[in-house]
Inverse folding.
């Protein structure tokens, strides 16, 4: 158990809908990362937050947005869903401070999104 | 641009044989390198990392990796493979230009046959 929790585990929704995925980082971790893993596309970095502020952006669509709240949990919002958005969405956290362990990322179990 | 490559989509090894999963990288400056493993329907788990020091790094589940600066490689190895090692393996390198962000390889599927 990495200490990172994600809810829900599974989500089935229709095209055009909007969903929210939730992530709670490990206790004490300040950084949260969101990734998308599709069957044929490996692990795609979406976005990173550090202590409530956006730190880095990857291949995140304009239909997707995220935020990190004062209690450090994060939410990923996916809107106007398309069939191609079906994937596993992972959240990871890291200490995000200086030191040898600051770059290790700890992954949650993921949310499997199916868009029908 | 910084990058990491895993040249093999899949590696097949017989149980009990040594295994190697390859990773090469391109960074400006000193790299921080990582290996993660993903079992079916699970999140990624940290295996080991190289930050500095000894070029041979030992990690979880009997895995080790060798940092080779001249060849810009960080291959994952295990002396004797187990069927339970079958999984997806990801190599990652720290991006010095993006705070705390990792650049990920495409992953290598490791299949250990009994």
């Amino acid at each position: 158990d990495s200490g990172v929790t994600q809810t829900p585990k599974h989500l089935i929704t229709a095209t055009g809908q909007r969903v929210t995925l939730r992530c709670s980082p490990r206790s004490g971790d300040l950084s949260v990362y969101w990734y998308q893993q599709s069957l044929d596309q490996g692990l795609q970095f979406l976005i990173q937050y550090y202590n409530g502020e956006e730190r880095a952006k990857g291949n995140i669509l304009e239909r997707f947005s995220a935020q990190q709240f004062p209690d450090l949990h994060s939410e990923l919002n996916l809107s106007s869903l398309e069939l191609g958005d079906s994937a596993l969405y992972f959240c990871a956290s890291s200490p995000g401070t200086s030191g040898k362990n600051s770059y290790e990322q700890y992954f949650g179990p993921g949310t499997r999104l199916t868009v029908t | 641009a910084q990058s990491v490559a895993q040249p093999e989509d899949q590696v097949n090894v017989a149980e009990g044989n040594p295994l190697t999963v390859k990773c090469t990288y391109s960074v400006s400056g000193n790299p921080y390198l990582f290996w993660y493993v993903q079992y079916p329907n699970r999140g990624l788990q940290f295996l080991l990392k190289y930050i500095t020091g000894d070029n041979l790094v030992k990690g979880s589940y009997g895995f080790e990796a060798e940092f080779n600066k001249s060849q810009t490689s960080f291959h994952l190895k295990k002396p004797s493979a187990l069927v339970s090692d079958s999984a997806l393996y990801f190599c990652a390198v720290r991006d010095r230009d993006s705070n705390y962000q990792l650049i990920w390889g495409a992953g290598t599927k490791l299949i250990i046959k009994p």
Chain A touches chain B at residues 2, 4, 31, 33, 42-43, 45, 48, 50, 55-56, 90, 92, 94, 96, 100, 102-110 (CB under 8 Å). Chain A has a mean pLDDT of 91. DSSP finds no helices and eleven strands in chain A.
